[in-house]
Amino acid sequence: MADRLPPLTALRAFDAAARHMSFAKAAEELSVTPAALSFQIKSLEEHLGTALFRRLNRAVELTEAGAALAPGAADAFQTLANAWRRVQRLQDDQSLTITAGPAFTAKWLAPRLYEFAQAHPEIELRFSASLRIMDFGRDAIDVAIRFGRRSDDQLYSLPLADEWLAPVMTPALAAQFPDPQSLTKAPLIFDDSIKFLDPPCDWKAWFAAVGVDHDPDHGPRFSQADHAVDAALAGVGVVLGRRALVVKDIDEGRLVSPYGVAIATGARFRFLCPKGTENRPHVRAFRDWICAEIEKMAHITAGLTIIDPADTAP
């Protein structure tokens, strides 16, 4: 048996037929006639020296050889398609596609985009607000912004500012609760999007950091951090606000953080892109802009005492 690979068109015909389990549907996908597709698969079987499909009355099924070949063929064509898309992205010097979580998109990116657009009118920004793990090649993504503690050595990964959590509320509500002890009587908002952090970064941890024994569990709960912040902005209560999502509101006076104490999360947002693309002009411009915007708000963090919850755990 020759080791030489068969023609790519024959493998492509086999891959389509194996996915659809139908010569007619595979032919439709590839825009060829069923007879032409059948000829390609027959030539592949002759090249291999064994049948890949059992032809039934109105259907086909894979033989043992076909079942062994199908996963590799599918993976190979997917890898080739991803590589092709990556090459196409490299030629695109007019658009930048970014994925970030819904909360970061709503509370950090969206309020600042006008400034970036003004500075870089040549770049067309496209956003995918999703927490779904995406493939840069398959999903045609240039940059991902992700939150967590782990990094990915397979990607260019730039950690952004350290994230903290501090009680934030409207100025009117702050006037009613002048110190941490009084906050035990305040309406508290719960952001369940950070429940994965360990050690926990919750209300109990914050109260422990300021020396108050209080473990609240009553109040509105939100699965999305931006919804929790929106509730605080509406005066519903006090939320443990995540740095990235509340610094602009604090800086512009819509929210206040009156107690001067925050707890460290040990997690960060990270700027991610495929290695080798970080210095593409559009990617670099976006990265540099994000870093500059973060620096503008550094004074908010500088005014806080940040405590590691692990240091106050029993």
Write the CATH architecture name of the domain at 161-265 and 296-311: 3-Layer(aba) Sandwich
CATH-assigned homologous superfamily of the domain at 161-265 and 296-311: Periplasmic binding protein-like II
Share of β-strand residues? 15-25%
Number of DSSP strand runs: 11
Largest sheet: 9 strands, mixed
Structural class: alpha/beta
* CATH domain class of the domain at 161-265 and 296-311: Alpha Beta
- Give the terminus-to-terminus CA distance: 69 Å
Secondary-structure element sequence? HHHEEHEHEEEHEHEHEHEHHE
CATH topology of the domain at 161-265 and 296-311: D-Maltodextrin-Binding Protein, domain 2
Q: Please compute the radius of gyration using only Cα atoms.
A: 27 Å
Mean pLDDT: 91
Can you give the helix content as a percent range? 40-55%
What's the helix count? 11
What's the helix and strand layout?
Layout: H1 8-20, H2 23-30, H3 34-48, E1 53-55, E2 60-62, H4 64-91, E3 95-100, H5 102-119, E4 124-129, E5 143-148, E6 155-168, H6 171-176, E7 188-191, H7 203-209, E8 221-222, H8 225-233, E9 238-242, H9 243-251, E10 261-274, H10 281-296, H11 298-302, E11 305-307
Parallel strand pairs: 3-4, 3-5, 7-8, 7-9, 10-11
Antiparallel strand pairs: 1-2, 5-10, 6-9, 6-10
Brief overview:
The protein has helices spanning 8-20, 23-30, 34-48, 64-91, 102-119, 171-176, 203-209, 225-233, 243-251, 281-296, 298-302; strands spanning 53-55, 60-62, 95-100, 124-129, 143-148, 155-168, 188-191, 221-222, 238-242, 261-274, 305-307. With 314 residues, it is of the alpha/beta class.
